[in-house]
## 1
Amino acid sequence: MTATYPPATPIWCAGCGHFGVQAVMLAAMRDLGIPAHEVMVLAGIGCSGTIQNNLGTYGYHALHGRVLPTATGVHLANPDLTVIATGGDGDGYAIGMGHLVHTFRRNPSFTYVIMNNGVYGLTKGQNSPTYQSEGAALDFDAVSLGLSISSTTFVARGFARWTDQLHRLTVAALEHARAGRGFAFLEVLSPCVTYNDTYPVWEATLDDLDARESYDPSSRAGAFSAVSELADEGRMAVGLIYRNGARANGELARPAAEDVRPDRHAAAYADLMATFRVRSGD
Ligand SMILES: Cc1ncc(C[n+]2csc(CCOP(=O)(O)OP(=O)(O)O)c2C)c(N)n1
Ligand code: SF4
């Protein structure tokens, strides 16, 4: 893989939060001793998704908004791989939103690192569903969405500038998914310095739940009330917000290996394509 596609130099603007995400992801893989050939990083479309170009792991750029069903397929085909889906808020919270809801619901054991900057960076700064013209709290909050789905097992949020905490959260997310405990959702507040520089407002208003001694991340109700109370104050929670360590990933049945062998289906696929060709020529 790396002989054919050597890791690229990031294309990001100087100061983009995505640099922090990449540095931490590499450090987490190193600290957990996961070799690159046992990892597949899938990416949505966006500046954030180009993270996959920069890594020496297996990689796949999915269609815009389709990184989660694609990652689910990879996980089903080879559960021994450490699967990491990545992308931006435009990719995951707009065109990909339906998939996010159902990935929480299905709870497959892979990690999703979503870089939230409130804009579509790659297409030059249009507002995304999490764009805030004022204040720091989000009108749409994927953390609350995840908490509202009963099969959710892991919800965390980090800030690209607070790399120590982000490193701990990334390690925890990878450990959760690798242990087969389900979908590890990690939102990273990752500012776009060119079109929506949210570093100052986030730095001033984020509230770190990891720093609260009494906070219990195993309580869904406690997580809900902490996140909602902060939102009412115009603030956002970061930290390990919710982790249900008891729940195993029982819902997704692995397909028989035969079902994912391309040679088994190649003839049927060719026949199907032939029928499309006849129709389009009518
Ligand atoms: C089907 C489709 N629609 C629209 C686009 C154009 N497009 C490319 S990237 C992108 C959004 C990028 O924003 P985000 O996911 O937030 O990532 P960022 O660039 O901010 O990291 C869009 C709409 C596309 N590539 N494909
Ligand atoms: S446009 Fe924004 S999101 Fe894209 S690389 Fe530059 S700072 Fe990062």
Note: The chain has one domain: 18-250.
## 2
Amino acid sequence: MKRLAALLLAGAALWGQPYDLLIQGGHVIDPASGIDGVRDVAVAGGRIARVASSIDQTQARKLIDARGLYVTPGLVDIHAHVFGYSGSLLADDTALLTGATTIVDAGGAGWRTFDEFRRTVIERSRTRVLALINIVGWGMLGPEYEDNVDDMDPAKTAEAIRKHRDVIVGVKTAHFSGTGWTAIRRAIEAGKLAGVPVMIDDKIFTNTGRTSREKLLDIMRPGDIQTHVFNDRQVEIISRFDGKVQPYALEARGRGVIFDLGHGAGSFLWPVATRAMAQGFYPDTISTDLHATSILATESDMANAISKMMLLGMSLREAIERSTVRPAQVIGRYPELGTMSEGREADIALFELRRGVFAYKDAWKKKMLGTQRLECIMSLRAGRIAFDAKGLAFPDWRTAGAYEVLP
Ligand SMILES: [Zn+2]
């Protein structure tokens, strides 16, 4: 890859200007590189060529004025829905315009349907689409499929993971309404066979025979992911009796269990989130669970999910860390993803932090007003501008040459 980047750089240099694009004067937040300050970012051959305090603008064919904006690695959303699920969305319609350049479909496809998912969605999307494969062979097709333990085959699932290892980053178990641990245990068995983490989305009502403590401490492995962390029907992080973070949640975190936001339409509750955040129990990873309902009802896209975390006390830098390098690590894709270090593919997002009065909503249809909102202004995928809300890369039509082409 390094050699390829060098070749591309050399090719571009022959044209006189080594950089295709220069993003100037933005406040770069790249926690993986320890950068939190104003920098210029040069892109060449689809990759990050240089990040520095000042880069000669005559070396670039295209300039983007990013003064007053934040520039971050493209966000990595590890819980989205773009296949199989009844509320699935189109990746390119929903991710790139909110700063997410990589999304992980959370269990839409199982081993029976993964080839189709790959052919019809993954390979056709400009957004980088990765996947957690459902332990159910038919994937997320509804209760009659998702409750069928006979279709939860760890060996076949692991085989599909090995076949599609370039895009499958883990296993998902979801929506199992039966009792006991079968669905979760089968998913973990597949995870063990293929060497990948498991994301868990279940219910812990008394009649399920499952408890949060047992799940977090006895069943889940280090690196496995509890999504919907602020939904108290799925995992009890906050004690219903004293409002304190449960000691077993802290213990599980200490052992390496990952707590993921998985915002969604039904899984972000102010009473849980405010208490957990006030006690410092932040989600390890910020993700959307974006689907047909959550995109409208709770507006759970990445930029909004980050804004809500900031409303509850998280700094922007921390939020970017939990939306870039941390999720990339959790899915085993760091440093390939989640950073803007030189040589990496140029997945980049530009944001404006707007001031004003903004309404944020939870799953119980309650609102909380905040005074700032993060909004995606531009996103680049592999060095190409995918979304440009303010036309930063567009020349004025009255003065531009007729054939000026966007990078
Ligand atoms: Zn989901």
Note: Residues 74-330 form a domain with the TIM Barrel fold (CATH 3.20.20.140).
